[in-house]
């Protein structure tokens, strides 16, 4: 990539994070009601910390860190890089203030921009691109985490009128048949990709059919009305326990008000639209729905083999594949290596992308992954048979 | 009380809450890291809600409530007054904003002031005084809760230079002997008091001696150095479990840094001063310390009988009395009655007052109470024998 | 006491433990479904261990302990006497077998009997009497713990036909008025008593009335039918949480079968008899019932002052007194001292005795104590006003 | 299968369960210290219940069930067949007694034997074989669950001298290379197999090498001495949390006594033999060990493709494959269908067999599965690269 293009991409990405926070009040930057989500302040800081820790400290001559505490406070997983604040206590940190965090961003941006004008080492370029992709991942989390936090408020705050991540209709229908054969899976080519997509390899697939469309709210309401949440026979044992322990009877954010199903959205509480694409469901619900239909979820390999002939990108689609290493997968040395491989157990793969995924971040070989119980991402269902 | 005096007292009290928050950043108003403490925003709102709910709705003709959601959000215990937001989720509420909360305060203040100029019904006057005392209680909680929240931050934020609740020395020494006899316990006279102090009654006390001074940090360090936290024989069984489950080895907020005991204070991290009065200890620690000394804690009746001859008011002093009803105690009808009587089990009485107690709020018959494990209030130890 | 009488008392007490277990199958000696109750095997062993550890090791010349593991396995609280097996894992110990435990009892009995024929030191005599009282306490726990364990079995096992701890009627009625005055509280005289009863002292009591009868099932059914379990206003805050978290809607062991209230008893499932005395209720329920009646529970001092004029001994009666030290209470040195004083926080006093209390073990100054939530003892309600 | 052979197989299988319990005391049949393991009494009853519920009720004319309670008490997972006792309370059931359970077995055996002499319907035959395999599975659990329960006893009970499931040496060494290609996976042929092995299908495998030997105690001690349990970089994130939360520093049942590693076995406490095959490790430990070695675990497909050239059957070998459905897997209708498919999420596949697996129950297509944290089975490690 030409250096000026990279600089522009850097600036655009960094601006987009700020733009996402434009509608926020200072108060909105702080709370962390659940340990799996983080406050906006933390996302803004942590993505900045990545550029400081992984790039400026190494490449910027005589770099003076912005503040000694920030490294400690805004590290996330990276155990290699020293102690870090406890994940579950991100919501208790009132200082540094939001204003200071923005100063931190500006300080790091100024140094990165200076650095990119002077240095075009391929290793630097690679890390910048990694940092950009890392920030894009946090942009998606920032907005989905924020929605989750705001959803706790009984007064249903509006993030921004006209900004609604969930109001999409299907535009296609029917089934796509894919013939038996050997398929190549995994990233190929030159662009950016994560380590977990590497190791392009062959898989044998038997013939299958995959739906061109995603499941809609109307489809799922049928399942609900047919007693889907009350009948153990559609559920995995672990899913059935999850339903009962958490008294689940609808997708996340849904509430029944005077006989009508509504849902909390970033525009406030809205009526469920039957023809919109279903979202905010767990793997357990996706699997139970498929079983109830007499169908199944595709594997991630089937999905990738079919992807070029499918319309995808509005929802993260649960697959019936566990998140496991590809053949020859190796964890990279050092902190960067803690990125993906550490999580390769007890999680399910999601393929596609969502309306919260930043433009240019999606990729057909992209492997997203979450524990099967999680619902706060923009998840959806594509069926196979 | 003359109405203009009452109005002035109201204004002073309300201003004091605002003054306590003057050093805060917006961010500081939000988090609630533990369920037993509440954020400043909630204290400011809830004490205001009390005046709106208990007084304006009833006495102010055609009163228009400030906002329908606030009643729901800022109710605390009062089950009589309808649904309320879940206590453990106070820290997740980003809206209403802090600015809106201040508007709410001004709106209610304006109406109360107008009301007090027009109406001097004794019942109104009584409720205003209750509301003032309620707000004073929340002022003490506001500052101690805030300290607790800030203490989670590894960068030890400073609330305000020169404002330090814990830097007091003893000014007295020796023992006071109180003779055997019948003593009158409980509130007497005309001023304000809570329902739990009522029912003045006789108790028989055997002769006892009570210390004129409170235990210092140096005293407690001796206990620590003598292995006090490691020897079960000084501890109540429940206290010993508490020590071990929570790995307690010092008072709250203390940390040992390079061999020196320091403590988080509202002025940041400070060295422990040996001659300062000990604070932030649980009942279990108070009791274990007394046992180690071969002494004991006074009962609340002994304390009250001796109070006029003691210097008190810098620490809440744990007594070895459980918080139980006085003879003839009756819970008042309605929401006001939910105030005190509901908590009369599994808590211990503290007598005295602390440096966080608003001026004029302290009283020798005042019965403060907490579960024996709690330490975030400005608690201390006075010994008896 | 004459030595031969003491020996006879020892033998009778020891035989009674064995007699209580006569209807049991081997299987019944093992499980411990909850941590607050212990299996019969443990009670039989632990009460024997007490005689071995506290008496034989000290007084019996060249005493050879029965088995080195038993000291470790059957110690309960006594931290002074070395490590002990974890309380919550008593139900996992299949070895030593029940047969071995009976051999252990016989071995210790033979040695104690020999010792008592040779040695009449007052200190020995005192410890024997303590051991007898200790075993009597465990007899009561053995049968109430056993009932609790059997109650988990959906097939409602019968312990023994004709043996029913709960089928008692009231035989008295009306109120007893006790005049204001100074009363002496605590043990007086020469017989056996626990350290927590010592320190006879004066208390001043205001005039009160205390019920001659105990609350019946019919009385409590009225409370239930009046919605007592659904109305927070009768409950202490802690009690209300307890009701809701545990979904309590009746006394322990009750179940509604086809519209009729039944209760698990040691004779199997039985219909609730309205005129029988209520039992298996928590302090919270006792207090809520009294509040609903517009009455209150007596204090332990009121109870003791009235005891000589009351019929008592079928139920442990919850008082509204916390379990706290009497004036001048001192914990005895060593293991014996761990008996009572260690528990003097967060528990409520029960007075009286129950149908499970061994004959001769009851005493009007006896202070029983449990946490307010517990219901598996034969607890009941006596009202005061 | 000829009917007389089937009858003989039935009798042998049923006798083996009884033989496994021969060394037990009555007491050993009862406890269930953890919810993932069940008491011997339950295994004996549940495997019998299977024959009664699935076969006798359907095929034996006018069959009179042994006892109405047993169906309720000894059902395990099968939600289709009505309510069942709570899994975590199996250890609280003292009745029916062990003697009654043996009578139940004899009663059911007599009826099955009679039935098999009269009826040779293929459907019956198939269910009998399923019941036999089901009982064999419970035989393996019975002995591993029992070991787990006995391990809680600080006196290290001996189950039976000379019976030691863990004292095996490796008899092979070196690596086996398997070429790239398409392999057929899943059960083929006519014999018994579980539904999860069905759907023989093709998978493409890249070239790999797999170890002929299993990891030994000496190998693992090297890992331990190299600080393997203290270095996060070898561990999956979930595994690292598991290590820290549970303070794991060795395989299950190991304890260090005076500087020497010992292990609880069914023969009591024994010194660790370096050249014995490692066992009782979690998937997390297996994966961390492989990472430390710079190697990896095989997938279940690699394992099956290599199985005919490997010596296997002493340990259940953790694979790096999640337990997921094979293509075209369908859950069978009714209770039998609840067997396997319900668990296809969040578990890892183990291949091979163990020294506790009944003879004839092992199969190269057999898919065993457990959550990655479990260690009480006879698990081991085979490496791949």
Automatic annotation (TrEMBL), chains A, B, C, D:
- Transmembrane domains' residue ranges: none
- Entry-linked Gene3D superfamilies: paralog of FGE (formylglycine-generating enzyme) (3.90.1580.10)
Q: Which InterPro entries match?
A: CTDL_fold, EgtB, Sulfatase_Mod_Factor_Kinase, SUMF_dom, SUMF_sf
* A UniProt-annotated Pfam family: FGE-sulfatase
Tell me, what is an example of a GO biological process annotation in this record? ergothioneine biosynthetic process
- Sulfatase-modifying factor enzyme-like domain location is 172-307
Q: What is this protein called?
A: Ergothioneine biosynthesis protein EgtB
């Amino acid at each position: 990539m030409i250096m000026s293009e990279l600089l522009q991409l850097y600036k655009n990405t960094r601006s987009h994070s700020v733009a996402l926070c434009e509608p926020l009040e200072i108060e909105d930057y702080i709370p962390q009601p659940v340990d799996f989500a983080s406050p906006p302040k933390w996302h803004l800081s942590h993505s900045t910390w990545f550029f400081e820790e992984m790039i400026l400290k190494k490449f910027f001559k005589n770099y003076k860190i912005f503040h000694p505490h920030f490294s400690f406070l805004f590290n996330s997983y990276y155990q290699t890089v020293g102690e870090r604040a406890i994940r579950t206590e991100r919501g208790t940190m009132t200082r540094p203030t939001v204003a200071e965090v923005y100063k931190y961003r500006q300080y790091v941006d100024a140094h990165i921009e200076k650095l990119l004008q002077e240095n075009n080492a391929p290793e630097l370029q690679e890390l910048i691109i990694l940092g950009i992709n890392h920030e894009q991942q946090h942009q998606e989390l920032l907005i989905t985490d924020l929605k989750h936090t705001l959803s706790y408020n009984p007064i249903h705050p509006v993030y921004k009128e006209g900004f609604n991540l969930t109001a999409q209709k299907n535009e296609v229908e029917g089934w796509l048949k894919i013939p038996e054969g050997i398929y190549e899976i995994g990233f190929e080519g030159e662009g950016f990709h994560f380590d977990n997509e590497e190791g392009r390899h062959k898989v044998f697939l038997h013939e299958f059919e995959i739906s061109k469309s995603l499941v809609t709210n109307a489809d799922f309401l049928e399942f609900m009305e047919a007693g889907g949440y009350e009948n153990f026979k559609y559920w995995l044992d672990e899913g059935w326990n999850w339903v009962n322990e958490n008294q689940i009877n609808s997708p996340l954010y849904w509430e029944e008000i005077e006989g009508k199903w509504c849902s909390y959205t970033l525009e406030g509480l809205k009526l469920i639209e039957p023809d919109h694409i279903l979202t905010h469901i767990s793997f357990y619900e996706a699997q139970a729905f498929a079983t109830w239909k007499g169908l199944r979820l595709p594997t991630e390999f089937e999905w990738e083999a079919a992807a070029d002939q499918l319309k995808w990108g509005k929802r993260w689609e649960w697959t019936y594949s566990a998140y496991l290493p590809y053949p020859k997968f190796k964890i990279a040395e050092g902190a960067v290596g803690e990125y993906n491989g550490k999580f390769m157990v007890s999680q399910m793969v999601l393929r596609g992308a969502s309306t919260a995924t930043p433009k240019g971040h999606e990729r057909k070989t992209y492997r997203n992954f979450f524990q099967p119980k999680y619902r706060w991402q923009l998840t959806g269902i594509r069926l196979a048979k």
